[in-house]
Structure formats: C-alpha cells, structure tokens
Recover the amino acids of this structure.
C-alpha cells in the first residue's frame, strides 16, 4: 500500500535531502546548515490537493461508524502510564494564557467578568461570560466545531446539531474523562534562533523534523504536539495585532505528517493554521483536515512561553500532559487550563 509519505511526495513534488542534524548552535545563532534548510523549495498545496487529502487522510470508520473520539482513541491506558513515568521533578506548568478582559485587535470578544456580592457583606461571587472560539482565549475545539459540505468527523451530518441542545454528536463531553498522555513541545522559534516567528511565517514538515533532530525526540502515536511560534512573546513586546489575519502556524502540507505520526492532539500559541494559509480558497486547511477529516482535536491560543522556559531549563521537551474540558453537554469546545508536568 502506498504510504502517506510517498503520496505526499507524489502530490507535492517535495525536494529531497532533508537536513536532520546541525540545526541550532549555542547562543541561538542559526548555522549555515540551518540557512540551507530554510532556503529549500517549499511544497505547494492547492484546493484540489486539500480535496484529495480529505479522502486519503480520512479516519472515517477507522474506529467504527459510531465513533466520536477520533484520534483520542490513540491514547491508550499504556500511554497514560508511560506519561506518568515522565514526572521526575514534580514541576507543573500552565499552558493557558490569562484570559483577556480588555478588547484588542486579537481579542474582539473579551472575557466577561462581573463581580457579584460585595466585600462588606463578607460574601463574594462572580459571573463569567466568554465566547472562547477565535484568536484570543486558550481553548479546546470539539470535533463538532468544524464541518465541510454538511458533514463533520466520521461522516456525521451537521443536521444532528440542535439549536437548543447544541452538538448532540461530537460534542466536548466526549473528552470529559480528560486527556493524559505524553506531550511534546516543538519550539520552532527557538529552532530558528529567534524569540518569536514573525506573523505569517509558515511552519513545514522540514521544521518539525529538524526540531526532532535538535531535541533528540520523535513524535509518535498518542502524543499531543505543541508548536510554539512565540505569539505571546511578540505581543508582550509589540502589542496586539489581528492574529486572525496574520499569524505564524502550520502550513497545510503538514497534515499528512500529523496522520502518519499518529498525533492525538495538536496545539499552538496561535490557532494552528498559518494566516494567510497559502491555499487559495481554503482559509484554514489545518482545521479542516484535522477536525473533519482525521478527527484530530485541537488546542488554540495556548501560552507556551513558561513551558518553553521550563523545557529549556530541564533540557527535555517531553512531559506528562493533563487537560480536562468543562463538561458542557452539547458544547463545541471549552476554555481550559492545560498542564505540563515534568
């Protein structure tokens, strides 16, 4: 049977000679070998390619016609036990950014926080309101968040969505028991000797595999992969910008690699897709091919700065990852505070 890699080569006409060593030198200065790597011709993906991958990369029926877990099926009890073995220091690191309460270019729906009660009464409470999908708030996408031509993951019809009950199928409560597995940080800004990638920078398979070589780690089935572009580091220095229009992220050509490696979940400090996508007529090819085609769950707008610092201090880029969404029946996703534990 033709492998996904050979299919990718046939469809895209990828260049040969992918560099696997000599990626980053001390002090964060890119080597000449690195410069050669990033000078390579990059793959072209068209809307026709995406249509073909919607078929070739599909996990429809892989875990049965009634399946609603998608790639979470790849996280086995053995994966959870193995992940627990990665905890050696007892260090816990949040992957959530503090929720943005003020409107900004990247926070058009700020987090609503209303204080109830008063200090004088001795009793305090509050009310939260949040529209978390978008480009500001750390959150998890359920598989019903995205559809194409009337179908969601596993061929489930969008007509199953109820305007009152929400996502009767593929909702966030399918992940109610939580996600516990190995997490891997792929710090692409660090790989290139930068504090952050400039918005609009695409990340390719070459970059991911170069990071594997640099970090001495290989992504495998059941892993949750986090890709750092340094969005929040840039925001702290330069201020907010319209991340829904200009953002570093994965190029569409990475999608077959995600399926080939058996990635269970994907997250980034942006919304995973590079903007602009570079694929005419397809604004979010990574969202489309993960949520709809593969049933691969996503984390968006995570804050990976503290994780990047902790991983560098530890000298390792794998950790036990733990996350649990709010158990909202019919929900299309959830805000949350995921944890990396070293």
């Amino acid at each position: 049977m033709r492998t996904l890699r050979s299919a990718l080569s046939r469809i895209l006409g990828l260049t040969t000679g992918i560099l696997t060593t000599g990626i980053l030198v001390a002090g964060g200065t890119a080597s000449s070998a690195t410069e050669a790597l990033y000078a390579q011709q990059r793959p072209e993906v068209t809307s026709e390619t995406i249509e073909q991958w919607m078929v070739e990369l599909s996990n429809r029926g892989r875990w049965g016609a009634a399946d609603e877990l998608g790639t979470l099926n790849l996280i086995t009890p053995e994966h959870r036990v193995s992940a627990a073995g990665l905890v050696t220091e007892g260090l816990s690191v949040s992957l959530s950014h503090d929720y943005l309460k003020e409107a900004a270019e990247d926070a058009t729906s700020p987090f609503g926080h209303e204080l109830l009660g008063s200090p004088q009464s001795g009793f305090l409470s509050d009310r939260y309101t949040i529209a978390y999908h978008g480009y500001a708030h750390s959150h998890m996408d359920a598989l019903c968040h995205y559809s194409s031509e009337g179908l969601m993951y596993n061929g489930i019809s969008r007509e199953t969505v109820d305007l009152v009950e929400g996502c009767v199928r593929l909702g966030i409560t399918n992940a109610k028991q939580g996600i516990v597995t190995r997490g891997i940080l792929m710090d692409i800004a660090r790989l290139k000797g930068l504090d952050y990638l400039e918005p609009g920078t695409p990340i390719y398979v070459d970059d991911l595999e170069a990071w594997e070589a640099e970090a001495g780690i290989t992504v495998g089935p059941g892993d949750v992969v986090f890709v750092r572009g340094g969005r929040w580091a840039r925001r702290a220095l330069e201020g907010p910008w319209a991340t829904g229009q200009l953002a570093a992220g994965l190029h569409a050509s990475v999608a077959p690699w995600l399926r080939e490696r058996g990635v269970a979940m994907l997250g980034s400090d942006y919304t995973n897709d590079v903007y602009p996508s570079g694929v005419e007529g397809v604004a979010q090819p990574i969202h489309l091919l993960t949520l709809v085609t593969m049933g691969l769950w996503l984390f968006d707008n995570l804050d990976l700065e503290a994780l990047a610092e902790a991983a560098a201090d530890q000298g390792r880029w794998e950790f036990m990852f733990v996350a649990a969404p709010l158990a909202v029946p019919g929900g299309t996703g959830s805000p949350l505070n995921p944890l990396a534990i070293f």
